[in-house]
Design goal:
Elements lengths: L1 H15 L5 H22 L1 E5 L13 E6 L31 E5 L7 E8 L4 E5 L2 E4 L2 E2 L1 E11 L5 E10 L5 E6 L12 E2 L4 E5 L18 E2 L3 E11 L12 H4 L7 E2 L2
Antiparallel strand pairs: 1-2, 2-14, 3-4, 3-14, 4-12, 5-6, 5-11, 6-7, 8-9, 9-10, 12-13, 14-15
Length: 260
């Protein structure tokens, strides 16, 4: 009887105990989750997607990738809404030649761009007949199998492909539609101190540091982070609500693929 009475009283107490703060506890959990996501995006990894073909063949339209914010340290552009809490960079490492980097476009300090770092402060860069000269020496490149891909109109395109190698040993594939493109012969660029020079891997379809009025030299403060790996990729044939097409639209070979 005693045990039964204790059990029943306990049951009654639990069922009748008023719930306090349930709504506000949920709000707090949501706010904590948002704060944690903002902190993660600020100091660790931030997702980006690729909307254009300037980095083909290494990044495709429809790739979703993570960028490490800690690689180059932090500036105001690392913060949500680019809050001007300090100037310059803090806790930073230096970009290396060959890094695929996200940066704020110097022209407006708002638009996110992604290109490959080719030149460091003090470097001299020139393009002659499509070949990049770094400090008066041509970058080594070898012709490899042509690259084929389907453009936004569904047409198959075939472009010449080369394996280009920087002096530090970093190598990657580039595309050349023609050696006589508008940016295949340039003046000599001398990279200013605390600035960088970046180019797209799709050399004849990239607006980059070769066009000083549009992109030009990238201030170190404008660097957002280094591209690390793709976590998803879609060929664009499925809308978000077309669940039955997700499998067909996903490029599984590019999921969790490291970026050269």
């Amino acid at each position: 009887m005693l045990k039964k009475k204790i059990k029943n009283e306990g049951s009654d107490n639990i069922s009748k105990k008023p719930k306090k703060g349930g709504f506000f506890a949920t709000i707090r959990m949501v706010l904590y989750a948002i704060l944690a996501a903002l902190i993660l995006r600020t100091v660790a990894l931030e997702p980006f997607n690729i909307p254009s073909g300037s980095m083909i063949p290494n990044l495709m339209v429809g790739d979703y990738l993570f960028v490490s914010k800690y690689s180059y340290g932090y500036s105001k552009y690392s913060l949500p809404w680019s809050l001007p809490l300090w100037s310059g960079r803090i806790l930073g490492g230096e970009p290396e030649r060959g890094d695929v980097a996200v940066f704020k476009l110097p022209r407006d300090n708002e638009t996110d761009y992604i290109k490959r770092i080719i030149g460091l402060p003090g470097d001299r860069i020139q393009v002659r007949n499509g070949v990049v000269y770094l400090n008066d020496r041509p970058l080594k490149r070898n012709k490899i199998k042509n690259f084929e891909y389907k453009d936004s109109n569904g047409h198959i395109r075939r472009l010449e492909q080369y394996r280009e190698t920087l002096p530090n040993g970093v190598s990657y594939n580039i595309l050349e539609a023609t050696p006589y493109g508008a940016l295949d012969d340039t003046p000599i660029y001398t990279v200013p101190i605390k600035h960088y020079f970046a180019m797209g891997d799709n050399r004849d379809n990239s607006l980059d540091s070769r066009v000083l009025s549009a992109v030009g030299y990238i201030p170190e403060e404008n660097l957002v982070g280094r591209a690390e790996f793709t976590f998803y990729s879609t060929n664009g044939i499925a809308d978000i609500w077309e669940v039955w097409k997700w499998g067909e639209s996903t490029r599984f070979e590019r999921v969790f693929k490291s970026i050269d």
